[in-house]
Specification:
Spore Coat Polysaccharide Biosynthesis Protein SpsA, Chain A, two-stranded antiparallel sheet, 31% helix, 25% strand
Length: 233
């Protein structure tokens, strides 16, 4: 059976969190009254050569889950998260692409809530997210995000879609390595092309905050450059 959604998890760092992530995927509800769906999960190991401990640990977790719709792919020739996402999208079978970072988790109703929102929307949805909570080094209810249909002006203020919450129509799923903000860059590109964005106003994603990684990533991300490129040029 062709899956409705292909879940993509690129793994470079954070393998120690993958088992917790896997539990949240495997416990997803996939039916509610008259609707049901199937999923596949593609775990892409990039930047670790032809083998090694990261690939071995991912394979161990796959075997522990005992679900045949989980695939671990090694991507030794692929560099970076953008390359990994595009490589996994190329082999994905679902009409929808979900992104889940390996150190984040989902509430068990995450996918079914988005499926119902897509089915019940009065017009097609192209990209759909949810609210999130922060855990790890910071614990909070997460950022204030627009709910329901996301107006174009929201994209000029901040990123209105949580990366690990997103479902995107597969035909639109292509990331570019620009300004170190591959997800926000994609939303801005698609928003200019007329894509319709929607947020389910429920906290269905748990986003892990690492203070050290956030500090280390500051020099690689150019928010001002990204916004200037899309909104002022």
């Amino acid at each position: 059976m062709t899956p409705w959604v292909s879940i993509l998890t690129p793994v470079y760092n954070g393998i120690e969190f993958l088992e917790e992530c896997a539990m949240s995927v495997c416990l997803q509800m996939t039916s509610h009254h008259s609707t049901s769906f199937t999923w596949e999960w593609i775990i892409g190991i990039n930047g670790h050569g032809d083998g090694g401990s990261v690939l071995a640990e991912a394979m161990r977790i796959k075997q522990k889950c005992m679900i045949d719709t989980i695939t671990v792919v090694n991507l030794p020739g692929v560099e970076g998260k953008v390359g990994a996402l595009n490589a996994m999208t190329a082999v994905a079978k679902g009409d929808w692409i979900a992104v889940l970072d390996c150190d984040d988790t989902w509430e068990r109703t995450k996918l079914i809530a988005q499926r119902l929102a897509i089915e019940r929307a009065p017009q097609p949805i192209d990209v759909i997210g949810t609210f999130c909570r922060y855990f790890g080094d910071i614990v909070s209810d997460g950022p204030l995000l627009p709910s329901g249909w996301i107006p174009p002006e929201s994209f000029r203020r901040s990123n209105p879609i949580i990366n690990s919450s997103v479902l995107i129509a597969r035909r639109l799923a292509h990331w570019e390595d620009r300004f170190g903000l591959e997800d926000y860059d994609l939303w801005l590109r698609l928003q200019k092309e007329g894509a319709r964005f929607f947020n389910v106003p429920l906290h269905l994603v748990n986003h892990r905050i690492h203070m050290a990684s956030a500090f280390n990533g500051k020099g690689k991300q150019d928010l001002e450059g990204l916004l200037h490129y899309h909104l002022k040029s």
